[in-house]
Each structure stands twice: as structure tokens, then as C-alpha cells.
Design a protein that fits this description.
Elements lengths: L7 E12 L2 E12 L3 E5 L6 H8 L7 E6 L7 H5 L1 E4 L11 H11 L6 H12 L14 H13 L5 E5 L7 H16 L3 E5 L12 E6 L2 E7 L9 E2 L9
Parallel strand pairs: 3-7, 3-8, 5-6, 6-7
Antiparallel strand pairs: 1-2, 1-4, 8-9, 9-10
């Protein structure tokens, strides 16, 4: 979708993912480069979350190739460069937000950087006020911020964000939008699934629309906001 000369960060080549006879993704191909933000949109059950889990190497594709940083295997070095915000928070319920982040900082072997990094991501996402609160006591919006802080902790080069605006108030949405702009300017690549595509207008380079696991449309956004959406004929094979 992009004519950028920046290095390629993520690539899907004719990726299919089946669960039994159910098609979750079918012949999905795209590339994401350094400093780009790609929106993945579509209705419930369209395959957005599955696509993100495949991109994070949490699910193995049935066929096709996924590469991150030109690697097709999820080596520790590759996994450390990927930050995932998914439906699951990956946070321990009985630990405070700060305790969770310190645990992950140790897991990422951040060493002497850990304390500064924890403080920075808490401030970045606006989670300082509830840093000492146990995760089980957080509201949905607070939990989303804490999960985002965890995803940012290792300073990843590729951010995979699943419905990052869900459950957030308007002020928090604007904060996340501003952060996305900053991350792009710092050269990070972002793949963002959402059913609220309007929140990505003006900050995303492009949009891929999924329907029943198939790419049915693509369009440019940030580089050409008024571009017409191009509808693609769905594959006649494999029904959901």
C-alpha cells in the first residue's frame, strides 16, 4: 500500500488461518514499514483480532508467510521488538499496576533502566494516578491504559493494538491519538484494529477492510485523505 523507502517491519504474504473448516483469514497480503500506521477495520468476526495474533506470532498461519523484521521465526530478539495490546491484559489481577510493570521489566531484563522506564510509560498513557491500585479493582478504561503501558515497556519497534479506543473517554482517546502520532514520528510501525476508524483519520497511512477473513477494500488515509475506497472482489473459495 505504501511507496515508502523505509525498512519493512511486517509482511503478510497470502496468509490463511483456518480453525477446522472455519476460515478466519484468507489470502491476506500487506506490508508495513517503519513509521507507518495501518488501520485494520471490519465488523465483528471479520478476522481483525486473529490477524493481530498471527502478526504477534501467537497463532501460526495455516498457509502463507508472516515475517517481522525480515524474520519468519519468533526468536526472542524479534518478540522483544513487538508490543501487543490485545483483548487479554496479560496483567496479574492481584498485583498493582506498578508491580505488574516491574515484573515485566524484570522479564525483559531492563536492569537499571527499569524504574525510569516504568515511570515513563505510566506517565505516557496517563496511568500514574492509579499505579498502586490492584488490577482487579480497575475500570475497563484504566485496565486498557495499564495494558498499553505494559505493551510499551520494552520500547518496541512494532506496536500491535487491538481496539485501543474501546472503553476510553474522549480525553483518553485524544491522548492515545497524540501518542500514535509521536510513535510514528519516532519511527515505530503500528498495526491497529478498530471498529472506530474515524479516530484514525488524519494519523493513519492506510486502511485495510476485512470481511469474513478476506481483504475486501484498501485505501490511503493520511497521505491522501480524500482517496476513494477501492472495493475488491472477495475470493469465491472457502466459506466461513
Amino acid at each position: 500500500m505504501s511507496g515508502t523507502s523505509e525498512p519493512r517491519v511486517l509482511a503478510f504474504e497470502r496468509v490463511c488461518k483456518l480453525f477446522g473448516e472455519t476460515v478466519a483469514l484468507w489470502q491476506v497480503s500487506f506490508t508495513l514499514h517503519r513509521g507507518e500506521l495501518m488501520a485494520i477495520t471490519g465488523g465483528n468476526g471479520s478476522g481483525k483480532s486473529t490477524l493481530l495474533r498471527v502478526a504477534a506470532f501467537l497463532l501460526k498461519p495455516t498457509s502463507g508467510t508472516v515475517s517481522a523484521f525480515e524474520e519468519t521465526r519468533p526468536t526472542p530478539a524479534v518478540k522483544r521488538r513487538i508490543g501487543l495490546l490485545g483483548h487479554a491484559s496479560f496483567l496479574y489481577e492481584d498485583l498493582s499496576v506498578e508491580e505488574n510493570l516491574k515484573f515485566y521489566a524484570a522479564l525483559y531484563a531492563l536492569g537499571r533502566e527499569a524504574e525510569e522506564r516504568v515511570a515513563r510509560v505510566l506517565a505516557e498513557v496517563g496511568a500514574e494516578d492509579f499505579r498502586h491500585r490492584p488490577v482487579r479493582a480497575l475500570s475497563h478504561g484504566m485496565r486498557k491504559k495499564a495494558s498499553l503501558a505494559r505493551a510499551l515497556l520494552a520500547d518496541p519497534d512494532l506496536l500491535l493494538l487491538d481496539e485501543p479506543f474501546s472503553g476510553l473517554d474522549r480525553e483518553s482517546i485524544e491522548r492515545v491519538r497524540a501518542l500514535m502520532r509521536q510513535w510514528r514520528e519516532r519511527g515505530k510501525a503500528l498495526l491497529v484494529t478498530t471498529h472506530q476508524a474515524e479516530f484514525l483519520e488524519g494519523i493513519a497511512d492506510g486502511e485495510i477492510v476485512l470481511d469474513r477473513g478476506r481483504v475486501v477494500a484498501r485505501r490511503r488515509l493520511a497521505l491522501s485523505p480524500s482517496a476513494e475506497i477501492a472495493t475488491l472482489a472477495p475470493s469465491p473459495t472457502a466459506d466461513v
